[in-house]
Amino acid sequence: MSNSPTTPGIVPARLHSEDYARHFDDLYPSYDPHEAMVAADRCYFCHDAPCITACPTEIDIPLFIRQIQAGQPEAAGKTIFNQNILGGMCARVCPTETLCEGACVREAAEGKPVEIGRLQRYATDKLIAKNAHPFTRAPSTGKRVAVVGAGPAGLACAHRLALHGHDVTLLDAREKPGGLNEYGIAAYKAAHDFARAEVDWLLQIGGITLRQGWKLGVDGTLAELQAEYDAVFLGIGLAGVNALGVAGEDAPGARDAVDFIAELRQTEDLSMLPIGRHVVVIGGGMTAVDAAVQSRLLGAEHVTMVYRRGRDQMGASDYELSHAANEGVKIITNAMPVAVHANGALREVEFAYTHQGPTGLEPTGETFRLKADQLFKAIGQKLEGAPEGLTLDGRKLSVGADGRTSLAGVWAGGDCTGGGEDLTVTAVAQGRDAAESIHAALTAKG
Asked: Which of 127, 171, 268, 281 is a good FRET partner for 83, with 20 to 30 A between their CA atoms?
C-alpha cells in the first residue's frame, strides 16, 4: 500500500514532467556495432578464461565475444542463451564488477576489464530484436511438470524443461510474470518494459502454459501438485519482509522498500508517485540502493542510506554504492535504528552507532537522529509459508546441488533456497540445473 499523497511531506510531482522520462531512461544504453567491435577487440580470448568460472551460469564468454568480433552478434546471443536464457536481463542487472569483469585478466593487469556485461547486452538485444526464438522444442515426452513461481529461477527451469519436450504449467501469484525482474529491480536498469518483453520472447519456445493469480497454499497445495504432475519445481522467492523491531516502525510514512520499488515499476505516470523531501533508507543491499537512488530520481532532496555494519560488509557492490553517492545519496555505516519518531506523521529516525564487541555487533551508546518524512526498510526478505514436509536450511528451503528437496519429485531453486547469493544470475543457474535434473529423472530407464 502506497503512502497517501496527503501524508505530510510526501507528495507527487516534485519535478517537471520531462524530468521523469530523463531520470528513468535506460541507465546503460546498448553499444552500437562499432562500439561493440572496439570493446570486443580488448578481449585476450584466454584459453583458461577466469571470467567463465566467475559466471554462475558459466557462459562461454571468450566465444561469444569472438563471435561479436567476427560480426555475428546473433550467434553470440545464442551462445549466451545456451547457458542463460535470461541473459538479456542479467546483462543489465548482474554485478559484473564482482563476477566476470572482476575476474577479467585485463582488470588484474590494467584495472580496466573487458566490458563483458555491455557486450552481453549487445548480443542478446540483437537476437531478441529478431523476434525469432533461437531454440526448437524437442518432441513431446508426455511428461507434465508444475513450476511454481515465474521469477528468474522458474522461468529458466520452465524454458529448459520445455526445450526437452516436457509440458510445463507455470504458476504465479502476481498479475505479471517475471518475479523480481518485473517487480523488484530499479526501473532505470530495465527500462522500456524489457522484463515483460524478455518473458514473452522466452515463452516462444512453446510447451509452457502460464497461469497467473495462482498462489501456493491458497489456490492449491504442494501435495495436490504432486498428485497431478510428474514433477514439481518451486521458485517461490521470498515473500516476507524482515521487520526492524523498533518502536514506531509502522508510523505513517514508513514502508517496506520492496513494496515501494514494485509500485514504482508498475506506475505508468511517475509524476503521480508521492515521495518525501527527506528520505531515509535502512539497509545495505541492492534493494536499499535501488530505493535510495530512485527516491532521488523522483525528486527527494535529502536521501540517506544507513547500514548497521561497515561498508565492506554491505551487500551492494562498490560500483552500485558509488552510483548511489554520485546521485546524491548519503551513506552512513556502523549505525543501527533504535526508534522511529512520529507525531501523526513521520518526523525522525533515531540511530545508535555500532561497533564489533565481544558478543558481536553492539551499540556504542552514542545516538543521533535523522530528519525524515519517509522511511524505506530494506533489511532483507524471508520465506513465508514453506510447504509442509520440506526440510529447511536456516530460514530457506534445503536443496541438493541439483535442486532436489527432501520430498521425492520436488525440486526448488532461486532465492527461496539456501546457499548461493540472491542474484538473478544465480537463480537462473539453479532453475536451469534443476530442470536438467528433472529431465534426467523423468526420462530414466528402468
From this structure: 171
Q: Is residue 246 located within the same domain as residue 203?
A: no
Could you give the residue ranges of the DSSP H alpha helices within 164-285?
Answer: 180-183, 194-202, 222-228, 257-266
Same domain, 345 and 302: yes
C-alpha cell of 296? 532521488
Residue 244: DSSP 8-state:
-
Q: What are the residues whose beta carbons fall under 8 Å from the beta carbon of 360, sequence distance 6 or more?
A: none
260 shares its domain with 366: yes
At residue 1, the pLDDT reads 43
421/18: higher pLDDT: 18
pLDDT reported for residue 422: 84
Domain of 19 in residue numbering reads as 10-25+241-381
Q: Cell match 522511529: residue? A: 340
DSSP letter string, 265-276 = HH-S-GGGS-EE
Length of the chain (residues)? 446
Strand partners, 256: 377
How would you list the strands of the sheet with 335-342, edge to edge? 335-342, 346-357, 360-371
Largest CA distance in the chain: 70
Q: How many domains does the chain have?
A: 3
Q: Other CB atoms closer than 10 Å to residue 42's CB: what's the count?
A: 15
CA proximity to 223, closest of 378, 82, 388: 388
Cell of 169: 504449467
Residues 326-341: what's their mean pLDDT? 98
| Alpha carbons 237 and 329: distance in angstroms, whole number | 29
pLDDT for res 158: 98
First to last CA, the chain: 53
Shared domain for 372 and 387, answered yes or no, is no
Beta-ladder partners of 144: 167
Contacting residues for 273 by C-beta, under 8 A, at least 6 apart: 2, 12, 263, 264, 267, 298
Which tens digits make up the pLDDT trace of 45-100?
999 999 999 999 999 999 999 999 999 999 999 999 999 999 999 999 999 999 99
- Write the CA distances from 350 to 212, 292, 372, 434, integer angstroms: 42, 18, 10, 45
CA atoms within 13 A on the CB side of 274: 18
The SS3 assignment for 121 reads helix
pTM: 0.95
Check: CB of residue 144 under 8 Å from CB of residue 169.
yes
- Whether 340 and 247 map to the same domain: the answer is yes
